Model the fold of this input.
Amino acid sequence: MRRELLSIMLLLCIIVFVVSAEEKPPRKAPPLPDVAVHSLGPQKLAPLPPVPVPPDNPQTPMKILLGKQLYFDTRLSADNNESCASCHDPAMGWSDKGPTSVGIKSQVGPRRAPPVSNSAYMPLQFWDGRADTLEEQAKGPIINPKEMGNTHEKMLETLNSIPGYVEEFETVFGKIPIDLDQVAKAIAAYERTIVTTDSPFDRYAKGDKTALTPLEAQGLEIFNGKGHCTACHWGPNFTDGRFHNLGAKNKEPMEDDLGRYAVTKNDKDKRAFKTPTVRDVASRPPYLHNGSEQTLWDLVEFYNRGGGDDDSNMDPLMVPLGLTKGEMEALVAFMKVAVTSNNPEVANEKPIPPDEFPK
Amino acid sequence: MKNQYHRMNFQSKGEGIMKKVLLSLLLVSIIFLLFADRGNAIPAFARKHSFNCNMCHTAYPKLNDFGQRFRDNGYQIPGQVGGEKSIFATSPPIAIRALPGYDIYKTECCKMNSFHIFGVDILAAGVFHENLSFLFIYTPRIDEPAADYTGPQDGLNPRQLASVESANVVFSNVIDNKLNFRVGRFEPSYLPFSAKRSYYLFSPYEIYDFATPMNTFIVGDNQLGIEAAGHFKSGFKYAVGFMNGNNGNPDNNNNKDIYFRLLKTFGRGDGQSAGQRIGIFGIYGMQPTSFYGSIVSPFGETDGFINKQFYRIGLDASINWSTLNFQFLYMIGKDDKALNTLRPTEDYEYSGGFAQIDWAVMKNNRLVLSLLYNWVFPPDYDEQGKLKTYSVLGRYYLGNWEAVNVALHLEYTYKGRTICRFREDIIGMVIDFAF
Done:
């Protein structure tokens, strides 16, 4: 009889545990916004699908051109020296030379600029995901005291004082004066054209088995296998768009950067940063949010060690990989060439000459 | 996939056939090599996540650290709980593993060889809902061989018995990673090295399968019961369980056997493919010595009487260096003298263990080489004699970036017993594939 009682008690304990687990506050990161290209769980590495465009900001040629002008225009900053392209430089893989970004009055920021290329596919923007959309993201750096150091009001005042811009905004949006949403929408529309495609990997995935060299093909296999890369860098954009703590803690004298925690206040998000795309990764060293790894080889070594410093909040996906030198070479070869795009209009985008900006 | 080699029935073939057989196998291997890139079949989890097999396996079926954490987390990607597709959002999570091949079996008196299907598993696994997942494995009966079979034990010697090898539900993260439950038939955590996921097909871990005179409990078999397990950031892991202790069958007495497992990992990794791991384990149970007057319920359990105790206790270590993995396990077992029909005046005590070294070679671990030494030392009066086995194997994997799911397996085992100097030599050539 005692045994039966014990069994029943054990069963009750289990039920209580299960039920209580249901009632507890969520211990995970808040759910990600549902966007067309992002569904639950890893997806296959594949060529990129068409860019998702929000219904309230359709792409038009005029809007894209306007956005491009704004993107390269330093007049959006407080001292007329900084533009979006100052940190998100096409020549630097739409990021910067790092290790972290340098903004207005040569102020050094805590993170390097995340690449703008393919950011249209990201479910959340910024390293810490504090913006839901490209439109929201575009508003941020303008007023960041270490980036463009302006205010939205002053920036709008500046734009509204330039007849060329007023005319273009009226043509694109059908109303003036220029407002902040219009500026953000135009910049976002341009950024949605910065898509890197037609890499050797894309051709390989479509069936052209000659698109990768044997070494690169081995690298791809390791990328999706022993290297564990696709645990986070999955799907057509080679990123889960989620946040991970890799142990890449800032070194003195840099301040500790708590990453995603600043947005969610969830302890589990401390020092977690968004997974960047691997597409065109070779064009934008150094690596990680703080530029702490100089080369792709350094980066692979970093992962091979199981990440950076010990951190109680280290992502459980981080484990030493046991990659041999040959496997690391294959992985680097894959990332160096196989995911480098072949659409020159994006890779070789040139800044707008000063005399071509609206006056 | 249960090792049933000792139950196999071998059909004698002429020596001349050997060459043809080897040539055939070589031809099959070449064909596989030529068409390897066309392979696109991957088992349930890998297919669901679009991962290569070696995301979770050092080389299948052996789990790496990622795979171990995935399993510990209820088949959910660690750190991504809530971000998993459920089985309702994916294609049916079904996979099959099959092992056709050829063996040569030799003792001091005779030599045999035959083609075989060494095993078939039908697996289904997935996530029902957040933190609620399942694993189901059915092994169909494989008979020897077809209707026109003319061997001595027609229909009586299945190579593999039909069995629901696993059917369990996992309640994960009941208290973070610290408490998880597994209920049903499962491989208990007291097995530090999984016999089901061993590279070795013919002689995995002898100590797990060692049978004592009057005790039906087999350490290596999947058990019916409930297990609580958890892991901590410090690298400490535990498991404790209650089980029938009757190898997946209904219980034969009213006592539930219990077990525990404690381990600690050092460095990064779980000791599977990175980091180091040491642990201890123990099993304590009761076996009936009499069924006189007992009854059988409609569900098959029996209330055996005069239950006597037995225990198994052991320690283990897994050491990693580069792509080498060294595994060691030592275990002792003791059955009450009432269970010792060989010498009822004393308890039946035995010991044994194994040491194994695996070396993953080539890019993405396409080649695995391994050495294994097993020993089982029963009491001197047990006429089974001391057993020592030496095994060596090589597995070469075919596939591409999407999957490396076909293994060409070559294994040799020498088994020697001290009694009568009996020895066996086993060579197996198997194509181990899963999709």
Notes: The longest helix of chain A spans residues 2-23.
